[in-house]
Write a structure and sequence with these properties.
Length: 246
């Protein structure tokens, strides 16, 4: 199974990264819809697309307005956007309000069911995360493999969601700050390096890929990768257009 990291930063794009958007090209599954959505037609292998939104902050949803170009370059017979009911309602009312973006792309908004079946024999489940406004994390189970996506939350090895991601082959987790900015992480509801690595170890995951970095720290190693690897050796930094096999 291949996961393509189309966008890997938070808040706003930088010179090297777009905001969060992950794609499983063979399954037609997209996780979040940040500024990297315009890249989808180059890689998508299906004529259907299921989009799973973590929340409705603009850096995770603005790419929904790019779907017209996506569908022009890669015709799709169905696009379904899954998310919590209150977030979808907010997008309908505000992102697609007449004065802002008057034409909604041809997609269906669907409130999250407890379990959603996707192509490739996959099953998507979800769980709540702590962050201002509320966030949803996702676990995707396919025959013989699994992954989880956790963004916009404050990691801790005893976090409530540890059991929901236990034993996944791949954990893609936000890491906005290095440990030197732990106070900022607590203040704004994001994660820093050491707690994310400790959480991965506590959950017994196979591999950890870090994403959703501070765009102002736009260098090769924005979060001190060595500090994470000292705790959880199978840790990598995500980067735009990186392919992760799990």
């Amino acid at each position: 199974m291949k996961l393509l990291l189309l966008g890997t930063t938070g808040y706003h794009p930088s010179d090297t990264r777009h905001t969060m958007c992950l794609l499983l090209p063979e399954c037609g599954v997209m996780l979040d819809a940040g500024t990297a959505v315009y890249r989808v037609p180059r890689f998508l292998k299906t004529d259907e697309l299921d989009v799973f939104l973590s929340h409705a902050h603009l850096d995770h949803v603005v790419g929904l307005t790019y779907l017209f170009d996506v569908m022009h370059e890669h015709p799709l017979r169905r696009v379904t956007v899954h998310g919590s009911a209150d977030k979808l309602a907010a997008l309908d009312e505000h992102l697609f309000a007449g004065p802002i973006f008057p034409k909604k792309p041809p997609c269906e908004f669907r409130a999250l069911a407890p379990q959603i079946e996707v192509a490739g024999g996959g099953r998507v489940t979800h769980f709540p995360l702590e962050h201002p406004g509320g966030v949803t994390g996702y676990r995707l189970d396919f025959p013989g493999r699994s992954m989880a996506y956790v963004t916009d939350t404050t990691a801790a090895p005893d976090a409530d969601y540890v059991e929901r991601i236990r034993g996944v082959d791949l954990l893609v987790h936000e890491c906005y700050f290095p440990d030197s900015m732990s106070q900022w992480a607590a203040k704004v509801g994001h994660s820093h390096t050491t707690p994310v690595a400790r959480l991965a170890r506590a959950a017994g995951v196979g591999r950890l890929v870090l994403v959703h970095f501070n765009p102002l720290a736009d260098d090769a190693d924005p979060i001190d990768l060595a500090a994470a690897q000292a705790i959880f050796p199978a840790t990598e930094l995500g980067r735009d257009l990186m392919v992760v096999e799990f």
